[in-house]
Please model this.
Amino acid sequence: MDVHAGRADDAETLVFVNYRSGDGASLAALLHAELCGRFGSAAVFLDHESLPLGRNFAPVLVSRVRGCAVLLVVVGDRWLDGVVGQRRIDDPEDWVRREIVEALNHDMPVVPVLFDGARLSADRLPAELAALTTLQYFEIRARRLRQDVVGLADELARRIPRLRGRPKAAVAELGPRDGRGRSVLSVATLRPDPMADLADHALDWVDRVDGASAYLRRRPLAPATWAQLQADIEAIPESLPHDRLEVLVTGSLRQATSFAVGGALRMVTGMDVAVSQRGTLWSSSQGFDAPSAPVAVTHHVGSGEDLAVSIAVAVDPTDDVLAFVKVGGLPVERLVSLSPGTGIRDNAIDSAAMAAAFAQGCRDAVRKAARHSPRIHLFLAGPTGLALLLGHRWNRLRPTLVYEDVQSAVVYEHAFTLDA
Model:
């Protein structure tokens, strides 16, 4: 993807979206998508979408804030969490704070965007930001997400002088292809997705997955089947707008499903995908210096010619996978376990760049290991966002059987089969 497209140094920033990674990344991305559709992609600034690779970001951020028509401050329920004096917002060098202060000091219009009951309190804010409590805010509610996001865009178009008449200008200048930053895809298998109403396409499988709660939902509830879910996933590309090749995935899904969604939107087709991972946007277009080669450990099985692969990030599933392969009589010659060089733990992948680099490193390692194998059996134990990025890169390999941890006596169950 050309990160410079529509974002040249002299491009005019009209709307600057300020948000806290870990608090409002998903809402910020949805706002960016809607506002790009209204005002043009070059006119809306969101850091990971708008900063050119290799640029010194500090002067870019300052100049964009000073030149914008309005700064939106996205505030979620964790924006002011923590002990006063020890939070990121209490640090004068914190960029969320610096952007807001820069706008206030230069008399730029600032609109707090409060999500689903979030509130601002002067006694919880640094003195420099106390003025936020005196500004007219806009509230976005989860149950009315689509209406409220559209309503915010309408209000900006009416009330911000430099945005009046901009929708027509965006269509004329950018054309329909660039009118919106990305499509929104909602996939809900564990719990209802509050973003579904805003999505360009939504899959709601919550009532078709077995289990009384999100923690227990792991396999389809009869008569629903994995094959039916895969058919719905494979239909996703045709259900999304064909003129937008970037897709934001929202909702709740386990790793095999996330991998299959990434596989349906594979990079080789020209698509890009993104997902909020613990409040930080992980995107396939995220730049990195070089692929992150995984640590590979091989275990001989000798029951056939296939290759088994485990992605061991959060935990090491080796013992469970070997036991499942043996009990299930899978025709596997060996198991290759791939893990980060930093070790196996919950936070082993701690950034979008590391996730993208590790996904490519794993894909490359599997290509090499599977050179003489007729099929691959894949077991995933890591962040859902990593599974999406890995599936997105899964090409030039072998037909791949993807397994889900269903917490049964044998742990795993075959979920999907992807051609690769």
Q: What stands out?
A: Residues 297 and 396 are 22 Å apart (CA to CA).
